[in-house]
Design a protein that fits this description.
This protein is an alpha+beta fold. The chain is built from two helices and three strands. A three-stranded antiparallel sheet has the order 1-2-3. It is extended and about 45 Å long.
């Protein structure tokens, strides 16, 4: 698996991008990555509309998470009244 690493020289980030995480992957060194569906489409991208982001990148960029109620542990769902 080839991992593309993105970075900027100014190290600034913005909170303006929604990510749909569809899976995980591990590289040959044991580093975990999230497989993310790319909203920019598939044209010109080597992963057919997906990209891989490091755990650190996802932790830095995540400001909210939405999951289907069936994905919640039963105790949490009960506490939330679901």
């Amino acid at each position: 698996m080839v991992i593309i690493k993105f970075w900027t020289l100014n190290y600034l980030v913005t909170d303006d991008y929604g990510m749909l995480i569809v899976g995980t992957a591990t590289d040959q060194n044991g580093n975990k990555f999230y497989k993310i569906k790319n909203s920019w489409g598939t044209e010109g991208h080597i992963y057919n509309g997906y990209f891989y982001a490091s755990v650190a990148y996802v932790k830095l960029q995540t400001v909210g998470i939405a999951v289907h109620k069936d994905a919640l542990p039963k105790k949490l769902a009960k506490n939330l009244g679901l």
